Task: structure prediction
Amino acid sequence: MSKKIDILGVAVDSITMEEAVDRIETYMDERTGVLIATANAEMILRATHDPDLMQILNQAALVVPDGAGTVWAAHHLGEEMPERVAGYDLAQRLMKDAPAQHRRIFFFGSAPGVAEKAKAKAERLYPGIEIVGTRNGFFSESDVPAIVEQIRSAKPDLLLVALGVPKQEKWLQKHLSELEVPVSIGVGGTLDVMAGVMKRAPRWMQKAKLEWLFRGMMQPKRAGRLMALPKFVLKVHGYKSSRSHGA
Ligand code: UDP
Result:
């Protein structure tokens, strides 16, 4: 068990990439049926005014520190996270190990055609990988039973769900028990990046901890999301002083 660090009320695991991969592979071996979340600043900020999301995150088997904002917040609150564990990188690490461990993987989410492209990419990158099903993420409530059945009957060990935050976490929480999948992870834009629909920030920007800025620039429609980071920083400052005053 790793230590949990409270960031604005969300208990985030203080964990390295390798430890996260080990934990997830153990959950797959044990066929536990768990939900895993990758918490960046935007997700944590959203949880502060979305009690359902907050509860889901605090009940999740593992909440990895996704993004420089989360690692910074822990530090500012007097705790240390060993490193950031980005959802995209975590998904790639699990896929890399999958062929040798005979893990079956399902991609659910993103626009029509994207999950299939991501599957083709995974098959090129990780020879022997078994992507046992794909389903796009645009559906109505009446499609849900068929989607659940499609996933169940594909019998994946690992389900990657890319519906965006908080839809992916809420959908998973609601359907986790019927899905009977050992491990499910909400992965946001991962399938888009794999399919080449969206680019990841260049390495130098990732290293300079500017991935959030790149994402805002690439998606001008959602430039408003850039405000999440300064809002998060302010909230963490406030959280620190309220805690130090015993509130
Ligand atoms: N998406 C989806 N169904 C929806 C809304 C979004 O499948 O109803 C997909 C969208 O196509 C994209 C992903 O969810 O692939 C959201 O990615 P985003 O980068 O917004 O993730 P976040 O930043 O929310 O983690």
Notes: The chain has twelve helices and eight strands. The first helix runs from residue 17 to 30. The beta strands are 4-7, 10-13, 34-39, 62-65, 104-109, 130-135, 158-162, 183-186.
